[in-house]
Amino acid sequence: MALNSAEWEIIVQKGENTNINRSVFVRKDAGGSWKKLKAGHEGNYYMTTMLRALYALAILPEGNRRMMQQKIFGPCKMFYEILDNGDVQVDLFVVDEALEAPKHKAAGLYQAEWGVEERSWSLANGSRPEVSMDLTHKWGKAHMAAVAGKFDSCRDAAKKLGAHIENAWLNNDEINDYRQPSNHYSLFWMNNEFTSKDQLDHLISLIQMAQRKQESLRWLVHGEGAACFVKALNYLNSNPASSDIHVAQRGLEKQSVFFSNPRGKTTSENDLKALCKKSGLVLQGINVNKRDVIHNPDARSEAINEMLSVGAKLTLGGGLGAIGLSDAAKSLDLAISAPSAAVAGGILLVGYLVVKDSYKKNSAYARNIQGAFSATFGKGNEDWAV
C-alpha cells in the first residue's frame, strides 16, 4: 500500500546508504520542518538527535505491520506504523527531555559511598536504583538510610546528606571510621516528587521491609522528605500489620529517626515527637533550620515571636509612614498563606528592607534575614543547620 503523497512526505529514502532498508514518511504539514532540520542539523546536538531518531525507524527489524507501535530514542518518542511494503509512517513524534534524564536523577533507592579522591559522599558513576536496602551493611549496629528533601540532583543529595548523617549520628572521633570506600548509606531519592503516591508507597515498603526482617535501621530524614515520612508513618499507624498494637509496632522499635531541616505540614517538633511515640519509632533528634521561616512551623513561630517582642515602631522611608512590629509579624503570617512562593517572596522582600534599615542591631532575626531568604527560596535548606 502506497501513501497518499498529498498527505505524507518522505524524509528518509530507502537505499540512502546500505543500512537504510525502509523509507520513512512524516505528515505533509511537518515535512517542511523536517527537511530544514535534515539540511541544517550538522553541529546542532538537538537537531541531530531528532534526525537520528527518525533514521532509527529506517533500520527497524521486521515487525508487525499496519499496527500502531512506539519507539523511544533518547528524548524522542515516536508512534509509527510499518506499511505493507515495509516503509514507515510516523503518526506522532514527541520530544520529551524527561526521557533522557540522567539515570541518577530517576526516583529510587541508591547507595551513596565515600569517595576517597573526592573526599565526600557520592554516587558511583553509572549508579542505578537498587531493589532494596542492604540491611546487613551496618554502621556499627544499624544500617544507615537517608530520605532526601529538595536538591537539584541525586548526586547533590548524596554529597550533602552524608554530612547530615555525620552531624546527626556520629561523634567527631567516629567520623573517620566510617569515611571508608567500602562504606555506604542507602539514599531514598524522590526526584523532588514529594506528593507522589508512588514515592510514598515505596517509602512505606522500605520501612516495612526492615520491620519484617527485624533489622536495626537509622533514618536521616531531610527537608521536604519529612512530610512524606510523616505520611508513611501515619499510614502504618492506620493500617497496622496486626490488630494487636504491640505486635504491629514490633520491629519499629529497632528503627530510629533523626529529622534534619524538616519541612511541610505536621513537621513541628511536637508533631514529630508525638508521631514517633505513637508509631513505636525511636526519635534520635530534630535539627530545625531556624531561618526556614516559610516551610518550618517552629522557625516561623520563633521569627514571629521575636518580631513581636521588639516592641517598637518601624519608620519606613519614602513617605510610607510607620508600621508596627505587630504588622510586620502579620506580613510574615500573610506570606505563609500566600498562594505561591513568588508572592510570598514579594511580601517578605518588603519585610527585609524594613528589617535591614530599621532595627537590624536589635534583632537576631534581622541579622539573619538574608539567611532566611536563602533557606526559603534558595538552597540554604540543603546544608546542615547550625
* Count of domain modules: 3
Calculate Rg over CA atoms: 28 Å
Q: What share of the residues does DSSP label as strand, in percent?
A: 15-25%
Q: Which structural class do the helices and strands define?
A: alpha/beta
Low-confidence blocks of residues: 310-377
**Separation of the first and last Cα atoms:** 72 Å
Number of distinct helices: 13
* Shape verdict: elongated
Helix percentage range: 25-40%
Largest beta sheet, briefly?
A: 7 strands, mixed
Summary of the model, kept short:
The chain has 386 residues and is α/β, with parallel strands linked by helices. Helix content is 39%, strand content 20%.
Can you give a write-up of this model?
The protein is an alpha/beta fold. The chain has three domains: 8-97, YaeB-like fold; 103-287, no CATH class; 297-377. Helix content is 39%, strand content 20%. The chain has helices at residues 28-40, 45-58, 154-169, 175-178, 197-212, 225-238, 245-249, 269-279, 297-310, 325-336, 341-358, 364-367, 369-377, and strands at residues 8-12, 24-27, 69-73, 76-82, 88-95, 108-115, 120-123, 143-147, 184-189, 217-222, 255-260, 282-287, 313-315, 322-324. Strands 7-6-9-8-10-11-12 form a seven-stranded mixed β-sheet, sandwiched between helices. It has a five-stranded mixed β-sheet with strand order 1-2-5-4-3. Helix 6 (225-238) packs parallel to helix 8. The chain is elongated and about 70 Å long. The N and C termini lie far apart (72 Å).
